[in-house]
Write the structure tokens for this entry.
Amino acid sequence: MRSAFRKVFAGIFLVAAGGSSGAQVVMLAETTWGPNPATGVFPMGAFDSQVVAVFNPLSPPVGAVPPCVPVVGFAPPGVCGATLWHAEIDCCAAGAGFALPMTAPVAAYNTGPPAYNYNVPAGLANRGAIASVGIGGVPLRPTEVSSIVLSFDEIRSTEPGPGNFNSFDKGFVEVRSAPCGEPPCPDPAGTAWTVLAQVVGLQGCAAPVTCSIGPADATLDATFIGGSGKIRFRFETVDGASNTYCGWMVDNVLLTNEKCNPSCPGIPSPRIGSVGGMPRPGNAAFGISLTGAPPGAIALLFLGLARLDPPLPLGAIFPGSPCIFCCSPDVLLGTVVTSAAGGAALPIPIPAALAPCSGPVCVQWAILGGGGVLLSSSKGDITIQP
């Protein structure tokens, strides 16, 4: 698998550096909620609809602050089947659209037009989930501090409860361990999902909010560091009353990783990130970004194929450098000059022929700053996702 990466990146081309988007390297990016471009299937992109058994849902702690409340608990497995989850282009009313950063289509738990509620069947409780494909994680290396973050934008219009905490009509974010590439909706018998958070609070269509889980979330880290796993969004009405609200809408789901941060202890450390969606076969837009570097510096992007643990102190090779290199600098992918804002980007188009779940390999920037001091960025791991 690593030799395939070497061949893929041997012919990388360069791009003049402008600004770049946020830090951390993407593992999953779900924004379109349409057919998986690699397979043409999965009605909800990397996710698919899942029927879940009746479950006595948890309640958030008193005094919790919306929108995401960490909750410790477990949820039952699901099976493939139709639920009210679907790709939606309007927020609760025909022609309404969505307020940024949410853009149509989004994942929505409601009936869709013209009613926009979840009162189906009328007067009865209902529930449903969307579960992701198995997502490749990052290696476990004892000397590296890994940062895994799951974020998404959401809108909730549901039955209010005491303190606006939704005693009924609950939304949950859940994870479980699963092989990379496992199909989205079926769960092995007896499989339990672990609840990461309960989404609480109410807001209208003009005010999406962002839920961000991690870094240093024990459940999220246990799932995706040293293993691979799935993400699930589950909605539960609990009872059949007051189900004529618009429901739950989710967009811009991102799962990212970063290691070796700070890479330059004691001084501001440049950050690695990625652009262009997820590293999936056929994604020609994927690239690696850099932020926080000195303006006009020379930045070299390296691909690591071998284990480098513990990290390499650069001061031993380049006197005066306070930084470390956590990614074995085996292959030079390219060189760019950072922008006036200290940003850079290098495209790494992913060929369609590259096998899903190959990798992981690591990437890290070396930056030659003012005065000839060699700096380094944080590090990211890349797995080719299904």
